[in-house]
Amino acid sequence: MTSATQTDTPILVDRDGAIVTVTLNRPQKLNALTVDGWRLLGDVFLDLSADESVRCIVLRGAGEKAFSPGNDISEFATSRSNKAQAKVYGGVMRRTLEAIGDCVHPIVAQIHGICVGGGLELASLADVRICGQSSRFGAPIKNLGLVMSYAEMRPLVRLVGPAAALSVLLEGTIFGADDALRLGLVTRVVPDDQVRTEAQETAQRIAAGAPLVARWHKKFMRKLLSGQPLTEADWDETFDCFDTEDFRTGYRAFLDKQTPQFTGR
Fold it and tell me: Which helix (H) or strand (E) segment is 130 a member of?
């Protein structure tokens, strides 16, 4: 896992207690991702998902001009110039997108400025998405002769539905924060100078809750969205929380009018 002081790496990881901030770190390229950046981002999320001391992850781009415009187009001539190369590149992207989508911890997307293409795909994987009033969104990949793969399209369709997602892809327009909010692409729109504060305060609210409950809620939501029938084991798992120390801590703190201090046990 990288440190926030290592500015030469495409992905920065900074920790403040139980909250981890993951930063796409190519500000000179508006945080466009190379294949190495995609690979490292996947490694980071796999490591974080396995770390039970984490309670919330904030995903953002370096600076305040862009979350990310997606893939670095200048890399296409060497890494995605034909189907064989594209399949290798796509495999790296799929691994990363699935690592983020399967992450057990809550994810908050802190969106400054441009959030298009692969950047939009990444933001769509977050559980809470907060952007500034001047943020811009879209997926104009039709202009590159590219398609969005199943792994890339899935989170977008889950957020906005098939009709809206197809409209975004077919028209390829760039639209503003208010339209993104209307479509359900973002959770909240705030003034540009308040994006960081709102994202951090959101992460703190999440981290203050029982971490096992947050993980269960994410798991249950994925199960519901999968369309698979619920088994008796699935129903039984919804009562596991009653055997946790966090449950006992929570209800006792409520009765005593105190703030609970959860341990994740």
Answer: strand 128-132
CA distance readout (Å), 22 to 3, 9, 56, 248 = 10, 12, 11, 33
Number of H helices and E strands in the chain, helices first, is 11, 10
Are 184 and 79 members of one domain? yes
- CB within 8 Å of 136: residues ≥ 6 apart: 113, 114, 115, 116, 174, 175, 176, 177
Number of domains in the chain: 2
pLDDT at 240 over 70: yes
Q: Which helix (H) or strand (E) holds 237?
A: helix 232-237
CA 151 vs CA 35, 138, 228, 248: distances in Å: 16, 17, 19, 40
Contact 8, 37 (CB under 8 A): no
pTM for the complete prediction? 0.93
CATH number, domain with residue 71: 3.90.226.10
Average pLDDT over residues 195-210: 97
| Cα dist from 230 to 125, 219, 235, 237, whole Å | 23, 13, 7, 11
Segment (H or E) for 41: helix 35-49
In this structure, are residues 157 and 165 in contact, taking their beta carbons and an 8 Å threshold? yes
Residue 168 DSSP class: H
What is the distance between the alpha carbons of residues 74 and 210, in angstroms, rounded to a whole number?
Answer: 44
Beta bridge partners of 16: 19
- What tokens were used for 227? 């369309």
Q: Which two tokens stand for residue 60?
A: 């953002």
